[in-house]
Amino acid sequence: MKDNPNETALNRRKALARIGSLAIVAYTVPALTTLSAAHAASSSSAASAASEPSEPSEPSEPSEASEASAASEASAASQSSGASSSDGNGGSGTDTPTTEGDCKAALGTWDDTTGTCKLN
Fold first, then answer.
1. Is the pTM of this model over 0.90?
2. Does residue 102 sit in helix, strand or coil?
3. Residue 97 CB partners (closer than 8 Å, separation 6+)
4. Parallel, antiparallel, or unpaired: how do β-strands 108-111 and 116-119 relate?
5. Burial of 100 by CB count in 10 Å (0-12 exposed, 13-18 middle, 19+ buried)?
6. Which residues are CB-neighbours of 120 under 8 A, at least 6 positions away?
7. 108 exposure class (CB count in 10 Å sphere: 0-12, 13-18, 19+)
8. How far apart are CA 67 and CA 61, in angstroms?
9. What tens digit of pLDDT does each residue of 19-43 get?
10. Cβ neighbours for 119, distance < 8 A, ≥ 6 positions apart
């Protein structure tokens, strides 16, 4: 005898309901376990009673003075910067290149006598 189509549909629905229930349990249990473990880890224990203060210690003997260190050498002078151009508003305009390589990169002309860059 053939199965009734209504019975087959009902059996399929029961099977799908069981699978859905298992899926919900499979996702819920790890989440709840993680939350309870995090809650347990964050709880603190009761504070302990304060202990009695200790006796102050005696002061230590002063140490000997150290020898003076040698004087340091003067540092080398830094490169002078080029003149800045004014933009008419009291502030500086574009930076003038201060090395021959930067001047050439900015498409300028380097003046060896003055050590400055003339931008075209």
1. no
2. helix
3. 82, 103, 105, 106, 108, 117, 119
4. antiparallel
5. middle
6. 107, 108, 109
7. middle
8. 19
9. 999 999 999 988 888 888 777 766 5
10. 94, 96, 97, 103, 106, 107, 108
pLDDT in tens, 40-50: 766 566 677 88
Amino acid at 30: P
Report the distance separating Cα 101 and Cα 107, nearest Å: 10
DSSP class per residue in 3-60: PPHHHHHHHHHHHHHHHHHHHHHHHHHHHHHHHHHHHHHHPPPPPPPPPPPPPPPPPP
3-state secondary structure of 84: coil
Cα torsion 86, 87, 92, 94 to 10°: value is -100
| 98, 79 Cβ separation under 8 angstroms | yes
Q: If we measure between CA atoms, which residue out of 116, 58, 114, 26 comes closest to residue 106?
A: 116
Token pair listed for 56? 């102050």
- Count Cα neighbours of 107 within 13 Å in the Cβ-side half-sphere: 1
